[in-house]
Amino acid sequence: MTHASVLPAPAARQPRPAALARWLWAVALLVIIVVGVGGITRLTESGLSITEWRPVSGVLPPLSEAGWIAEFEKYKQIPEYREINLGMTLAGFKAIFFWEWLHRILGRLVGMALLVPLAWYAWRRAIPAGYGPRLLALAALVGLQGAIGWWMVASGLEYRTDVSHFRLATHLLTALFLLAGLVWTARDLDTLARDPSSRPARLTGPAAGVIAILFVQLLLGAWVAGLNAGYVASTWPLMNDHFVPEGIDWAGGAWLALTNDPFLIHFLHRWWSWVAALALLLLARGLSRQGARGEARLLVAVVAAQMLLGIWTVVSGVSMWIAVWHQVTGAILVAVAAAALHQLGRRSA
């Protein structure tokens, strides 16, 4: 046998949309966990503790005392240490290093959780027609997210004591876009498993409006996080005894204030949330009219929880764990909203 060492091509198999859907739901859950750990990383000021991007060798933390000291010496060279954490102990450095390391490890895990099964399903020819490019795009988005994460960290290594809030917003919103894409595709595959003649859901005009409104709220929330704007007021509904807070710096013009002033961005985030809530409640109403009452009730419950957690975060003075739950619930809200919009899109498919 001259070709005995050549592996035979796998026999053609029937597509397995139900199995692929379960896989994507699992990855979506992992993305929500990563978003939560990212919130902890930000709130503990841990994001700049690892000053290099080593996708392969960075998987392992330092394994010796000398290794820890070497990493700590690198951290001592950046402005955050010199201007904020001067005098930090090695034990304190290990604590912040852990959260950033865990965040990066989980990000790699998301990539592996997408790429390895995707390669397996492709080799087994188990991917339904038309879904291969979409699944590959989702996997590529994870790689892009890793690059964006380093781009964000790099903004705080030379001249700043924190990362750019614009880059932080890009990092977070890309993760939430990935989450929505996973949920939408999983629901398409779930539908295909039940009805092989079904077509993918479409994005309707009203759905695009809901997405735009929600995008603004998520962007403002990311800016609040990046600018530590949650700390400028700890009262609700008034901000330091004023509806429109004092302290907004208009000297550089309206656009600079809108994109950089913590008082104004906090104000906009807390009140635009009511616009977003109304849009999502109208979405829930549409679901209920279609007979999807369970999904409608879930959406209303998550919206209410997110609003209450937002208010609680403010009045607690940005208690870390309350703020983390606010961020995690925001990710869950994105997933639930994506599923709801998909349900509406099935009607127009």
UniProtKB/TrEMBL annotation:
It comes from the Bacteria. GO terms for cellular component: plasma membrane. InterPro entries: COX15/CtaA_fam, HemeA_Synthase_type2. It catalyses: Fe(II)-heme o + 2 A + H2O = Fe(II)-heme a + 2 AH2. One of its GO terms (biological process) is heme A biosynthetic process. Interacts with CtaB. This is Heme A synthase.
